[in-house]
């Protein structure tokens, strides 16, 4: 069910991307440095406040990422910052080794320090996984449509990614279900909503990535780096300079989601064999691939040091409840925020009101500041509520 609904959701997201990206690109040509500054801030704000239960920890995680993004040569003054005399750090911290370290190395460290080992997966025969699928899909057609729509709408928000729309869709399905008590037991109704939203959100996440150069999640952040390496610079001018490459991306989306069915079926049949590989063997193999990948980027050992340091940092953060996604997006979007902030300040001769002079910039600025104000007010109310509860208990 997850395989089929994900494929259908991916095709829906690809349709939305193909039809909306060109129109949005024409609109984005009106953007200048203040608009890009506020849009990047809006994406970072969404990533912080909807990816964690603790906004404070999300903000701290974001600030760590923004600090890492400032390492290297100053964008405007050309002065080296935080490089400690190391020539390798003059070019900054490459986000690909950073993500290898923060996602992969941290997982390896978590396994190595775990007190209890994962439960062994029991052997089960997998047969006829598509039997009766059409009947079930027709029964839950409303869930399928709703999951697709939620995935695309939430996925377009910069920083939302695919996990958040899936959880939102799952929660909505449980709220309106006639059998909410079955959720959490493998009930297929929740899988339809979450599976559709999970993949339709990917098409939505590519809209800000291609049109504005703002990654929708950590995956599109990696892809943006790959596109830059291929001289396909994401942004509003991509429709002018490389439209044939952009439509090749759209076609690849459709082909990928169609191929997901046979490849996904094969993966379902074969994946349990990987699960039976002892982790004590699997983890060192993953570590070797991480080290080789980090070394191969610039053919220096410095990249290996980056993944180890940031892997340790991510491990410590996650052990203390700090999310990793805001840090990664801070590393990716940090240079964009800084460059457009400095450019806007020079244009406005240091006047902060210059960020609100243009209509689009003013709207984006008000929305972004409104998000921060709403979260701060909610946090203050929560603190006062806990204080009142504590005093009442003491009385």
Descriptive keywords:
mainly alpha; 15 helices; 2 strands; 72% helix; 1% strand
What does this structure look like?
- There is one protein chain.
- Strand 1 (72-73) and strand 2 (80-81) form a beta hairpin.
- By secondary structure, the chain is mostly helical.
- The model has no long low-confidence stretch (mean pLDDT 79).
- It has a two-stranded antiparallel ribbon.
- The chain has helices at 2-28, 33-49, 55-69, 95-113, 133-139, 141-156, 163-176, 188-211, 218-229, 238-241, 243-275, 279-298, 302-319, 325-347, 359-394, and strands at residues 72-73, 80-81.
Record the SSE blueprint.
Layout: H1 2-28, H2 33-49, H3 55-69, E1 72-73, E2 80-81, H4 95-113, H5 133-139, H6 141-156, H7 163-176, H8 188-211, H9 218-229, H10 238-241, H11 243-275, H12 279-298, H13 302-319, H14 325-347, H15 359-394
Helix pairs in contact: 1-6, 1-8, 1-11, 2-3, 2-14, 2-15, 3-14, 4-12, 4-13, 6-7, 6-8, 7-8, 12-13
The geometry reads as globular
Order of helices and strands: HHHEEHHHHHHHHHHHH
Average pLDDT over all residues: 79
Number of domains: 1
- Looking at the chains present, what oligomeric state does this protein adopt? single chain
Strand content: under 5%
Give the strand line-up of the largest sheet.
Answer: 1-2
Percent helix range = over 70%
Task: Note the gap between the termini.
Answer: 55 Å
Number of strands: 2
Number of helices: 15
Give the helix/strand class: mainly alpha
- Rounded to the nearest angstrom, the radius of gyration is 23 Å
Largest sheet: 2 strands, antiparallel
Low-pLDDT residue spans: none
């Amino acid at each position: 069910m997850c395989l089929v609904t994900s494929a259908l959701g991916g095709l829906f997201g690809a349709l939305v991307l193909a039809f909306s990206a060109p129109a949005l690109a024409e609109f984005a040509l009106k953007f200048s440095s203040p608009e890009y500054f506020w849009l990047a801030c809006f994406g970072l704000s969404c990533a912080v406040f909807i990816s964690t239960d603790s906004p404070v920890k999300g903000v701290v995680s974001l600030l760590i990422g923004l600090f890492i993004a400032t390492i290297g040569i100053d964008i405007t003054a050309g002065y080296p910052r935080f490089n400690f005399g190391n020539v390798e750090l003059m070019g900054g911290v490459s986000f690909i080794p950073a993500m290898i370290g923060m996602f992969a190395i941290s997982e390896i460290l978590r396994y190595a320090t775990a007190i209890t080992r994962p439960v062994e997966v029991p052997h089960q025969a997998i047969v006829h996984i598509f039997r009766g699928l059409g009947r079930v899909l027709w029964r839950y057609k409303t869930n399928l449509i709703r999951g697709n729509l939620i995935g695309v709408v939430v996925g377009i928000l910069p920083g939302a990614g695919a996990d958040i729309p899936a959880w939102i869709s799952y929660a909505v399905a449980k709220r309106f279900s006639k059998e909410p008590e079955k959720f959490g037991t493998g009930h297929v109704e929740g899988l339809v909503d979450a599976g559709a939203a999970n993949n339709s959100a990917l098409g939505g996440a590519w809209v800000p990535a291609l049109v504005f150069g703002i990654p929708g999640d950590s995956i599109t952040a990696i892809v943006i780096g790959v596109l830059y390496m291929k001289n396909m610079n994401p942004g509003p001018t991509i429709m002018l300079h490389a439209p044939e490459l952009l439509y090749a991306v759209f076609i690849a989306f459709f082909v990928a989601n169609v191929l997901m069915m046979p490849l996904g079926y094969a993966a379902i049949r074969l994946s349990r064999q990987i699960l039976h590989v002892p982790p004590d063997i699997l983890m060192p193999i993953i570590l070797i691939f991480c080290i080789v990948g980090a070394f191969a980027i610039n053919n220096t050992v410095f990249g290996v040091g980056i993944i180890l340091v940031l892997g340790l940092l991510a491990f410590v953060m996650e052990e203390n409840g700090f999310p990793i996604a805001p840090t990664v997006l801070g590393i990716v979007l940090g240079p964009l925020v800084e460059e457009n902030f400095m450019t806007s300040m020079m244009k406005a001769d240091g006047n902060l009101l210059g960020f609100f002079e243009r209509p689009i910039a003013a709207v984006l600025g008000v929305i972004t500041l409104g998000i921060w104000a709403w979260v701060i007010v909610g946090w203050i109310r929560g603190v006062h509520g806990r204080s009142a509860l504590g005093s009442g208990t003491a009385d």
